[in-house]
Write a structure and sequence with these properties.
Layout lengths: L4 H4 L19 H13 L5 E2 L2 E2 L5 E3 L2 E3 L4 E2 L4 E3 L2 E3 L4 E2 L4 E2 L3 E3 L4 E2 L4 E3 L2 E2 L4 E2 L4 E3 L2 E2 L4 E2 L4 E2 L10 E4 L2 E4 L7 E3 L4 E2 L4 E2 L3 E3 L4 E2 L4 E2 L2 E2 L4 E2 L17
Parallel strand pairs: 1-4, 2-5, 3-6, 4-7, 5-8, 6-9, 7-10, 8-11, 9-12, 10-13, 11-14, 12-15, 13-16, 14-17, 16-21, 17-22, 18-23, 21-24, 22-25, 23-26, 24-27, 25-28
Antiparallel strand pairs: 19-20
């Protein structure tokens, strides 16, 4: 089981702000969000992007990069940094301490909270991404949920075989490596770590450590039976 940052993320140049990458664990990126953002955002709202609607809500310090498009009913609660050439689709909510790299997209009705997205990462519609890090070109499918806190609110620990790694925090969602994918309606349990180039198939629930370059799915059997003809009103 590897917790090291370079196991999951091989493209530090795809982070929009300096100071997030380092030599430690991948989850250390989450701990660096607050000081990095507070050092960057000191001028309040600064938007170089394109607003496709006047129906937008900005609160606190927000930076929106050049070429980024914000559609109607988007809510951004700072401090938030959004890079260049992104798409924030209608009804999306970006919550505090989120850093979104260049060329990313956040889908309709999705919510992103205290997370870092490397350049090219995408979140499809109606998903929740909380306290998570998404690598370069990683994908979150529609309706996916990254659970970010235990029911008992205790610190999160990752277990794999006989190894155990304590995150040291009661909040941690998903570490998703470069170019990995969560299919539609997947759920990841708090603290899940998924290596790069791994695909989690739709409707799959995962936890703990999942190595790089895997395909993960629940075995399923589809049953078919005869059905009577009924005309419904």
């Amino acid at each position: 089981m590897s917790m090291q940052i370079d196991y999951y993320f091989a493209h530090p140049d795809k982070l929009p702000l300096p100071g997030l990458y380092g030599d430690g664990a991948a989850v250390d990126i989450l701990r660096k969000i607050k000081p990095v953002l507070e050092a960057k955002l000191k001028k309040g709202i600064e938007s170089l992007g394109t607003k496709k609607s006047s129906c937008l809500s900005f609160y606190g310090d927000v930076y929106v990069g050049e070429g980024t498009v914000l559609y109607n009913d988007v809510t951004i609660i700072g401090p938030v940094y959004i890079g260049k050439n992104c798409e924030i689709m209608p009804g999306a909510i970006i919550r505090p301490y989120t850093i979104i790299g260049d060329g990313c997209s956040i889908g309709h009705g999705s919510e992103v909270k205290k997370s870092v997205l490397f350049g090219g990462a995408k979140v499809a519609s109606l998903a929740f991404v909380g306290d998570s890090v998404l690598g370069k070109s990683a994908r979150i499918g529609s309706g996916a949920i990254t659970a970010n806190r235990r029911f008992d609110q205790k610190d999160i620990a990752i277990k794999h075989d006989v190894e155990k790694y304590n995150i040291g925090d009661s909040y941690c969602g998903l570490i998703l490596g470069d170019s990995s994918r969560l299919g539609a309606n997947c759920v990841t349990q708090p603290g899940t770590h998924i290596g790069p180039y791994t695909w989690i198939y739709p409707m799959t629930t995962v936890r703990g450590f999942i190595p790089r370059e895997r395909r993960v799915y629940h075995p399923a059997e589809i049953l078919m039976e005869d059905n009577e003809i009924v005309e419904l009103s």
